[in-house]
């Protein structure tokens, strides 16, 4: 029932801000690790708004240094609650000084969208950078990293870590999560993705994109309870210039990836009235 209800709540989501825990600690000094400090524009303590649905529940605040693997690199494992700015309206996650300027055709499409038409509300993958409004986890293997999402029938995303390049443009098969290759810069995971389809929405607000989309993500874990992400979006088919987002995912120390059922014949979105961007 929780999962089925969550599809309806997608269209009614009130964008929330994730609070900065007052007792968050920076990791011990580790020269040459490449780890970066949290962005300076994070929401202030107590600035969050509780919203409906499992994805918006705040996990307990935890503090301490980031765990490390036997090889000394920071461990990204754990169950993470997403930054709701990435889920509800990415314009609220813009890096200070950045602007997100839609081209005329993209702006027209954005203003025409209705919340009930959101592919996520109809059991389809959420794409990047929204990825999922529900808990997710990262699994690392020697040659691949997987993002495993609780929502939408347990979708997943794979990142090739074996040094390969993207296929030639003509050989790319456009997909919901694109073709991702990654590498480590010290403690920072850098993911470069192309080959997206144009079907998913960036957020519940309905921001569009085209198949020209190119995304570069940078993930760091400065302490136990936080996984920071910085995402640069370059889509000359929909936006006047590239822009960068900053977000913060919170560790749920007792969280688990639960069973999720999404009904493909879900009727609730058809009852949602008004443009998608009304969630702002």
Could you give a quick summary of the protein structure above?
With 280 residues, this protein is of the alpha+beta class. The protein is built from four helices and nine strands; from the N terminus they run αβααββαββββββ. Helix content is 10%, strand content 22%.
The oligomeric status of these chains comes to single chain
Broad structural category: alpha+beta
Mean pLDDT over the full residue set: 79
Task: Summarize the main sheet.
Answer: 9 strands, mixed, barrel
Q: What order do the helices and strands follow?
A: HEHHEEHEEEEEE
Q: Calculate the terminal CA-CA distance, rounded to whole Å.
A: 27 Å
Number of domains: 1
Low-confidence stretches: 1-56
* Total helical segments: 4
Number of strands: 9
Q: If strands are numbered along the chain, what order do they take across the biggest sheet? A: 1-2-3-4-5-6-7-8-9
In angstroms, what is the radius of gyration? 18 Å
Considering DSSP H and I runs of 4 or more, what fraction of the residues is helical?
10-25%
């Amino acid at each position: 029932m929780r999962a089925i209800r969550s599809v309806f709540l997608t269209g009614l989501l009130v964008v929330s801000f994730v609070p900065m825990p007052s007792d968050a600690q920076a990791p011990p000094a580790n020269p040459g690790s490449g780890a970066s400090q949290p962005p300076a524009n994070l929401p202030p303590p107590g600035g969050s708004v509780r919203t409906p649905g499992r994805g918006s529940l705040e996990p307990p605040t935890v503090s301490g240094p980031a765990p490390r693997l036997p090889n000394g690199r920071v461990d990204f494992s754990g169950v993470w609650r997403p930054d709701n700015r990435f889920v509800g309206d990415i314009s609220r996650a813009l890096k200070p000084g950045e602007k997100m300027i839609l081209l005329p055709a993209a702006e027209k499409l954005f203003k025409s969208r209705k919340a009930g038409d959101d592919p996520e509300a109809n059991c389809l993958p959420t794409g990047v950078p929204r990825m999922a409004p529900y808990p997710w986890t990262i699994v690392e293997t020697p040659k691949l990293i997987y993002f495993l999402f609780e929502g939408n029938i347990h979708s997943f995303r794979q990142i090739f870590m074996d040094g390969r390049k993207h296929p030639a443009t003509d050989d790319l098969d456009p997909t919901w999560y694109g073709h991702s290759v990654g590498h480590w810069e010290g403690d920072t995971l850098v993911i470069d993705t192309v080959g997206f389809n144009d079907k998913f929405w960036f957020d519940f607000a309905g921001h569009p994109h085209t198949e020209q989309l190119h995304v570069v993500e940078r993930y760091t874990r400065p302490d136990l309870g936080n996984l920071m992400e910085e995402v640069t979006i370059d889509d000359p088919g929909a936006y006047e210039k590239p822009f960068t987002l900053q977000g913060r995912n919170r560790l749920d120390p007792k969280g688990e990836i639960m069973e999720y059922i999404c009904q493909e014949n879900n009727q609730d979105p058809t009852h949602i009235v008004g443009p998608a961007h009304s969630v702002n």
